[in-house]
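Full entry
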Amino acid sequence: MTDSPRNPVLSLLVKPVESSRPAASAANNSSHGSGRSIDTEQTLQSWIYDMVIWILSVVFDLFFREIRPRGAFRIPRHGPVIFVAAPHANQFVDPIMLMRQIRNESGRRISFLAAEKSMRRKFVGLVARSVSSIPVSRAQDLTSRGSGLIYMDDKHNSLVIKGKNTKFQTECVLGGLIVLSSELGSAEIETIVSDEELVLRTPFKNSRATEALLANSMRYKKAPKVDQSKVYEAVFQRLNEGGCIGIFPEGGSHDRSDLLPLKAGVAIMALGALDLNPDCDVKIVPCGMNYFHAHKFRSRAVIEFGSPLSVPKELVQLYSDGNKRDAIQKLLEIVNNSLLTVTVTSPDYDTLMVVQAARRLYKPANKKIPLSLVVEMNRRLITGYSQFKDDTRIIHLRSAVANYNKQLQNLGILDHQVEYAKLSTPVILGKLVYRSVKLVILAAGALPGAILFAPVFIATKNISQQKANEALKASTVKIQARDVIATWKILVAMGLAPALYWFYALLATWLTHHYELVPSIRPIWFITIISMTFLPMISFAALRIGEIGMDISKSLKPLFTCLNPNKINAVAELKSTREELSAEVTEVINSFGPDVFPEFKNPTDLFPTRQSQSLQSE
């Protein structure tokens, strides 16, 4: 746990923002000075929380093109709740996104668990405290180099670690960690036999760690066992008061296509709270953080809320009787299954790309699918694929869809742009000329803002990529470390953009004063105010105009391709391939759909009519 800040205002930021004190108690306290003081503190804390979320929401609305909630009616309006969110695709963005949606949809405020290391950073720490985050110490953040070298001498027993000039008995502790490089991971200590021998609780998860230790002696780091009792005490208290807790049970952020194994923390919180107070009636709400190109500027996101879960009484009893490990494991399975209902997970990236292509091919003609339904369609298709992936028809269809994706990539066009092959040459030429002229006009309108804001674009791109490379080297689960790119783009822009505007405003003020450009404006600092007002407006206008221009520019390449004599036949063949493939995809889905989803009835839609209407209304 971190020390409370000395600033009296900041000291409020680590207190709960939501309390469910009985009305009688609240009324009784309100008649005394202390009661009024508590109410004032809570009001101030709520105001600070709402202000921070509002400010960051403005920034997120600039970064994301569209953010949609789905299933928000399922959020409990009263009582203790643990919001369990996955996948953790963005370090700094995910919790703020979730807090914003929950505040807007239900009026509730939640406290997230945050790494103590992150809370020591100036800006991130200030934001985390302002939204009542609970600091959590992590063993991996407390590592230090151990003496000597370690190795393994028995390939049949990967739990025994031997040492050379090591001091296991004085430097290591039971329950602590032995940490190798970031690529090879860590393992928990079960027994310390001597200064030069110890036994692990479980083998290293990365098989390469065992191979490396069998081949050579290695340097290592050790980490202490972290006492999280104070963290859980704070969580139990907040839940007992009727508050809300937020947690990402996967642990750290990642950019994988499937969920990471869940940590035990969420189960301990729920079971521990009910063990201490059986009347607590805590609910667990699964939250799916579904992004479309999360690392890219002006991308889209759907935050989906699942049905609240009640912890089975038999698991609470099992936990109370001392069988904590079994109770925790069973509850984690329930939570994991609930997360699968609100997230789009895939065994690998290639499968996800094929499924998304199949969804586009199956989409009914002339029907726009809402963003929230796209998530549901992807999820259902992956469920069906997982069940019938060994069927010969599915194997053939996967190969055909993958080949179609490859042809699109070779021609440099997108699936929805294949329709251009239906158009005649004069029509294509007319569209090309019209859009080119429109693009030139839009580019001219966006140019001033783009030039002014160029330093921010360049800095965000370079710094975010640098941070991604650093994160990739330090992680064993990241693929390209895209989970940190959006975070650093937003953080850098939030810090650099205001500084850049002030620089331009002060420069404009100095030039006006020095060269008497506008002598009628007095006092001269009016120039500063005017500049600080119009510069953000110019940047925002450039953003909106540039967004339209980018969409138009992406549509030019397929038009050129359709006019290219060397490729026109390929495009026409691709159009024919798409029609045949679409028919095959539709037939396969309609054939297997009822076996996967009993309510599947409508052959022109992936959803039954009644369910589709309810989803549309969300």
In short: The chain has four domains: 8-138+228-340, 140-223, 349-411+569-617, 425-563.
